[in-house]
Amino acid sequence: MAVKILPSADVDSSATLGDGSSIWHLAQIRDGVVLGSNCIIGRGAYIGSGVTLGNNCKVQNYALVYEPAKLGNGVFIGPAAVLTNDQFPRAVNPDLTLKNGSDWEAVGVTIHDGASIGARAVCIAPVTIGKWALVAAGAVVTKDVPDFALVAGVPAKRIRWVGKAGIPLEDLGNQRFRCPQDQSYYKELSENELVEE
Asked: What's the pTM value of the predicted model, to 2 decimals?
């Protein structure tokens, strides 16, 4: 399948775009970006230099994915969400001279397969979002998120477990959980670890 790039999008010639991907109006794809197949980059979204996305990812309108972020397969980034890359942001050095690229070290956000970041959520690098995790809209993530965790708030804390369908799991007792949609079962091994049965 052909790659679809809208005329107003800004895509660097060194970017690698997977088959079937779509880049919408005013999106910017920087140098060295690698998109898997069937990715959708929404209007006004920004994908920083060298960022990698797996297959079937969706980056919604005006989301900002700063380098060196790494996204797995099937990752969803909601509208206006931000993945940061600077632990100690400053425009200038202590002598008030303008910082340049060598004056700071970029750190990234890593998001594993199937995870979703809600609208206007902010992930403060360096953090890792586990597979199939769900970050609620407006949350501010300051520490790693376990697989299958639903986190919300400022700072984000785990409030539930979710399955692959993204729906909160039913607590069956005895550390067992079930997805109400697909009837899959999960086992809680600890406060921060859930696995499929």
From this structure: 0.96
